[in-house]
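Let's practice the habit of predicting before peeking. Look at the sequence and jot down your guess about where helices and strands might fall. Then scroll down.
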Amino acid sequence: MNKQSHRRAVKKIIIALIALVAVGLIAFVSAGPYMRWTGQYHFGRVVQIDGNRLTLETNENALFQVNLNENTIIKQGWDTISGATLTNRSIIIIGPINGSGEIDAKIIRILKPTP
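Done guessing? Here is the structure:
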């Protein structure tokens, strides 16, 4: 193998490695939104709001206390809205259940009312 062939081979290997790193980086960055929506989620209707807490009633009539904080995102369609409009609305909450059995809400998605 002469020097020119060797350089071409090394160049192809370097390009392949750069492409592999780029694909891995794109996959890692793209996984963020997916991972956010595949965490623990809870579905139900808001029956009460008290400050930064709300009470969620599930379809099985179980009640959960939900903690909201300054990082909680509340969405209806593309719009971000305030918690005051949540009473009697059906919602999906993304967030883990803490050691006290309460849901720490990260994202709340308000569902369209059913007719």
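How did you do? Residues 14 and 20 are 10 Å apart (CA to CA).
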